[in-house]
Amino acid sequence: MNPASGASKAFNQDVKSFYGLSIAPKILDILERIKFKIPTPIQLRAIPLAIEGKDVIGIAQTGTGKTHAFAVPMIQRLAAREKGVGLVLAPTRELALQIDEAFRVIAPSFGMKTACLIGGAPMEPQIQALRKNPRIVIATPGRLLDHISQWNFLPLEVTMLVLDEADRMLDMGFLPQITKILRSLPKERQTMLFSATIPKEIMQIAARYMKLPVSVEIAPSGTTAERVTQELFIVKKEAKSRLLGKILAQYHGSVLLFSRTKHNARKITMSIRNMGYSAAEIHSNRSLGQRREALDGFKSGRYKVLVATDIASRGIDVAGIELVINYDLPEDAENYVHRIGRTARAGHKGHAISFATPDQRRDVQDIEKLIRSALPVSKHPEVPSEAFSENYQIPSRHKFIPRSSFPRSSFRHRR
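^ that's the sequence the OP posted. Answer follows.
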C-alpha cells in the first residue's frame, strides 16, 4: 500500500492558529477558552484531513498534541449527525483516562457523553455509562471485547475509529484483540491511526482495514523529542544505585525513572525512599487506584520520582518533567523514544539519562541506529565508569557536567 501524500489542499503551512483548519466556531471558542492558541504540526496537518472524512495515518513524536488532532475532528463530525459512535482504542488504562479527560473538555458543549472502558476497574459503572448512549467511547482492547461479548456495546454503531499509540498496542500483544475488534466494525467508517513509530505490522493493518489513508509524518519514525538532551553512563550493575543517588542530588525537579521489570521497580522505589526522596511506583501489579494515586501525586509534586515500567511510557502526560532516567535500558529500542518523550513536552526543555552495563553494547547500538545519532557518553567523578565489552568504540566522551552548570532558565524547579 502506498498511502497518499500528506500534502493536501486543506493544509496550509502558513496557518499559525486554529482558524482556517475547518474547525467549527463553537469548538474554536472552547479551544480559545482553554488557551489552545497555536496548533502543533500534527494538529495543523491532521485536523483538516480528518474533518474532510479521510482516513489518516499520523506519525509524530510523543508530546506533540496527537490527542486533540483526533478529538477535535471526531467531535465535530459526530455533532453533524444524529447517529454514530466514535471509538478510540488505547494500549493502557492511564492513556485511556487521559484521552477521556481531553474529550470531556469539549464534548459536553455538544451534548455528548463519553464512556471510558478500562481493565482493572469495576464493570458495573462502565455498563451504566454505556446505557446512557455515549457518542464517544474510549477503551483498552481487552475490556472493550468484554463489553462486546456481553452485548453492552454494539460495534455496528461505530462510524469513526481511532487507534492511538498503535505501535505500543502491538508491542503489548494486542494484535489478536485489535484484529477481532476491526472485523466486528462496519466497513463504512472513518479510521485514524496515530503513533510515534511505524513498524510494518501497522502498515499491514492500514492496508487491510483503512481506505486510501493519507499519511501525515511530522518527523521520521524514531525521531526523539526536539528539545530533549541525552546522556549515557556505562557502569556495572551494582553501581547503578550509587549513580542514581548522585544524579538525584543534582536535579531538583520531577524525575521519571524506567525499570525493565515490575519487581525491580519495587526495589528501586524502596531504594529511592531510603535515600530520602519521595517516590511512587506504577506498573501492572499495581491496582488502578494505586496507579491513579501515584500519577496524581507525581503531577502535584507530592512525589519527586515516579518509577515506572514501559506500561507507563505512553500513558504519562505530565507537564514539566525535568529528567527521564532509563535505569534499565528497554527491551525494545523503539521504547527508548517513547520513554524520553515524557520530558521536553509542549516546547519545554528536558534531559534523559540512560544507564548501560558493559554487556549492553548491542542494546545501545540498536537505540543509536533507531534515533540516527550517537548517545553522548558521560563519566561521574564519584562512580567508577566502565567500557563496553568486545572493544566497542564509544562515539564520544563527555565529562560529567554538574547540575549547577546548566542555566537556571533551562529547567523548571520544584523544590
